[in-house]
Structure formats: structure tokens, C-alpha cells
Amino acid sequence: MKKKVALHNLGCKVNAYELEAIQQMLEEKGFEIVPFASGADAYIINTCTVTNIADRKSRQMLHKAKKMNPDAVVVACGCYVQAAGEKLKDDETIDLIVGNNRKKDLAEILESFLEEREEKTKKSFLVDMTHNREYEELSISRTAEHTRAFLKVQDGCNQFCTYCIIPFARGRVRSRRPLDVVEEVRRLSEAGYQEVVLTGIHLSSYGVDFPEGEKKTLLDLIRMVHKIEGIKRIRLGSLEPGIITEEFARGIAVLPKVCPHFHLSLQSGSDGVLKRMNRRYTAAEYREKCEILRSVYDNPALTTDVIVGFPGESAEEFEESRAFVEEVHFFETHIFKYSRREGTRAAVMDGQIPEQEKTSRSHVLLALDEQRRREYMESFLGKEIEVLMEEQAEIDGITYWTGHTREYLHVAVLSEENLMNQMRRIIPQRVYHGDYLME
Predict the structure, then answer these.
(1) C-alpha separations of 427 from 216, 261, 382, 424, 439 in Å
(2) What is the pLDDT of residue 120?
(3) What pLDDT is attached to residue 163?
(4) SS3 of 383, please?
(5) Residue 174 has pLDDT above 60, yes or no
(6) CB contact at 8 A, 279 and 270
(7) Are 291 and 329 in contact (CB under 8 A)?
(8) What is the Cα–Cα distance from 129 to 103, expressed in whole angstroms?
(9) Does the structure show a pLDDT above 90 at 147?
(10) Which of 1, 58, 66, 260 is the S-S candidate for 47 at Cβ 3.0 to 4.6 Å?
């Protein structure tokens, strides 16, 4: 009888990609993938450690799994596992500990553990990520999404922002070989996917670790993926501002498959806060990068992240940040209240901001984000746009087909046809509640 395995992911798109790769390896081994509910023989939780809250959610899911079936094997893998290290060996909930760069072996590890289950001995498989320079080869032939496929092409980070634990959990920059990326994109294209999203922990660093004579940049990789037949859209994951040069912008602007949708991490519009964060650019330099993109694209979608309440952020610095966000006119701004993360330099900085003040500042930026998002969406009214249809959704009791434009605007279309994975051109006439463009 097939062993039943339930999977649960916490965290980023890279984590989601890795868990999908793990699922496909498990299926190849003969395991049956079942919903995350009672009755599984094993539960695999791919954990996150980006904040203390993420750590807590990871622990909660691990304990939930054991409660659903006390006799099941509970497997903890991923970033929380890597950061917590030996501490997890004292947690009786967990049977298997699999760190980063051992996920590729997880199916074999679980198969072996289940065969020796009578020993009832906890096992740990952790790699010292501080000195690890090997890119972990994982790949997929399909994804949970029907039209868009996320591809991990890079791992690790060398930046060491003062608020971030990820370089310790993920290790240093490691890039995937271009030919392996191209081969995976070809498989996904043959499976019917028309859009691919290149993603990584620090995507802008792609290729910096390649030896001399084999150097490839992110722009080189994009050009290679662009040549693959069947792929109609290439979307990029989060980018650091430093990668946006005149050369890079002009290089992607001549590639019609590259979507004019760029997520540039800001974190703060105050130079003082940026310096304390160790972000390595000024607000003026960031603004220049946005201007470069707008000089080569007509009305590109620029999105960003902003942290409010970073240690020492004065009222004046917050106002600098707010004014900067207002001036740049982002399509979307993802606002995060600073979360103290043990093990980071920021966690022990003076001037920790009270939670109530973080919430107040967050509300200010959320209101601005809502205003700017609607303004950007309204700029497309009456203009023909291309939409990749993805799924059906019920809006006000009516079933629509929904999808995204090249700028990643959400669109809803009335149709009795099955529009799944079809490209449609429409002329939107209204914005529905700031959520959808509609004809």
C-alpha cells in the first residue's frame, strides 16, 4: 500500500517552488500526496524564518501535524530548521529534520526512515550553510498554478541587511547553471505554460558566483529563456535597485516577452534608516533606478516593500519615507511593520519602536498604497491590454474569468467560454473596488 504524505508550505515563492519539487520526487518514489489533514503517514512542513512570527507559525504547523496523527512521521525542513539548528532536536513533535541544501534528498531520506520506523529515533540532516557553495539542484515539470510557473534560479544572499536572518539560513549566493534553467523552461513550455517567473533569494546576484571564464549575468539568462518557443511572458522576481542600469534596462526592453512589471525592494525612503539597515543605496539612487525603467518602458508597473518602525526611525524619518513613496508613484507598496528577529544586528539596536506607533505608521502608508494602486489601474482604462486568463472567480454573485496583464493588473472578464490559459485582448472601462479591471 502506498504511504500517504501531506505537505504544507510557509514563506516565499522560493519555498513554494522547492516544495513542489519535493512533491514530484515523492510521487516518483511511489508516495501518495494527500491533503494536509488527519490520516497521512507523514507530514512535511517547509518552514520559514524571515520573522519571529514566521518561526512561531512554523512551530505551530509542526505541532498541528503531530496532533492530527501522533503515529505519523513529522518532517521539518527549510529555513526555520536551518536557523534553529540543534535546538529542534529537543522538540519531540519532530521526527526528521532536513535543512537547506538537503531538500533534494528528502524523498530518499523519508523512504529510508519509514522502512526503519521501528527504531523510533529522531534523525537530523543539516548542512553548515555558512561555508556551503553548492547550488541544490531541484526541478519541476508542472506547478500548482495552471498558467504561470515559478522557477528558482538562485539561492542565498551576501547582503547581510541588519534586520534579516536569511543569509544565515540560506547561505551565500549560489546560482543555477543556465542550461539547467533553459531545460526546465522547455519542459514547462511543452507542458503548456506560457509564462515563467524567474525567482531567487537574491535574484539580482545571479551569476556572481560563477568562475571566471563562465560568467553569466541575469540579463544573459533572460536572453536565453527568451529564445524558448511557447513561452510568451517572462516575469522577474524581486530585484535589488543596484541591478537597474542603463545597459540592463535597455537590454530587457528590447525583449518583448519580458513583462514591464518590476518589484524593486526599497524598505525605506529615508537615507538615515537605509544606512542603519545596511541597504547600500540612497533614496536618490533608488529614484534614479525608477526613472531609468520609466525611460525605456511606457508606464511600467513598479512595486516595492517598505518597513515601518525600524529601530530608531524618528517621526521625521518616517515622513521622509512616506513622502518618497508618494513621490515615486508605485503601483503597489507592500508595507511591513518591523519585526524584531533574534540573531540579527537590528534586534539589539537602541530605539525599538512601540507596536502602537508601528501600526499607526503602517495605516498611513496603506491608505497611500490604496490611492496609488487605483490611480495606476485607472491609467489603463480605455486602452487595449493583453490578459493571460487563469481561473474563474465569483464577483457579486456572478462568475467571471480572471487573469493578469503584463503589468500584473488583475482583470475580470465575462465569458461563457473556457478561457483557461488563453491570451485575450480587452479594453477595460472600469475599476472594480480597486481589485479588478473590467470591460
Answers:
(1) 40, 19, 5, 10, 6
(2) 56
(3) 96
(4) coil
(5) yes
(6) no
(7) no
(8) 13
(9) no
(10) 58
For residues 401 and 392, the answer to whether their CB atoms sit within 8 Å is yes
At residue 122, the pLDDT reads 65
C-alpha to C-alpha distance for 101 and 80, rounded to whole angstroms: 13
For 221, the grid coordinates are 539568462
d(CA 401, CA 405): 13
What is the widest separation between alpha-carbon atoms in the chain?
A: 68
If pLDDT is split at 50, 70 and 90, which confidence band does 85 have? confident
Tens digit of each residue's pLDDT (9 = 90 or more) over 188-229: 999 999 999 999 999 999 999 999 888 899 999 999 999 999
Residue at grid coordinates 544573459 = 220
Burial classification of residue 422, based on how many CB atoms lie within 10 Å of its CB (0-12 exposed, 13-18 middle, 19 or more buried): middle
Q: pLDDT of 254-276, one tens digit each?
A: 999 999 999 999 999 999 999 99
C-alpha cell of residue 234:
517572462
**Least confident stretch, 41-45, 144-148, 195-199:** 144-148
CA separation, residue 179 to residues 22, 182, 291 (Å): 21, 5, 33
Torsion of CA 62, 124, 24, 47, to 10 degrees: 40
Report d(CA 171, CA 191) in Å as an integer: 33
**Torsions phi, psi of 79, nearest 5?**
-70, -40
Cell 496609488, residue located: 372
Instruction: Concatenate the DSSP letters of all residues of 266-323 into one string.
Output: -B-S-HHHHHHHT--S-HHHHHHHHHHHHHHSSS-EEEEEEEES-TT--HHHHHHHHH
Give the closest residue to 201 by CA, choosing from 101, 119, 93. 101
Taking the chain, what is the end-to-end CA distance rounded to the nearest angstrom? 52
133, 180, 239, 267 from 154: Cα distances, Å: 12, 12, 12, 22
Q: How far apart are CA 362 and CA 334, in angstroms?
A: 10
Q: What is the pLDDT of residues 328-378, one digit of tens each?
A: 999 999 999 999 888 899 999 999 999 999 999 999 999 999 999 999 999
Tell me the residue type at 416. E
Distance separating alpha carbons of residues 311 and 339, to the nearest angstrom: 10
The residue-averaged pLDDT of 11-17 equals: 91
In the chain, % of residues over pLDDT 90: 82
Q: Report the alpha-carbon distance of residue 67 to residue 81 in Å, rounded.
A: 20
Dihedral (CA of 263, 166, 36, 116) sign? positive
Residue 83 near residue 343 (C-beta atoms within 8 A): yes
3-class secondary-structure state, position 194? coil
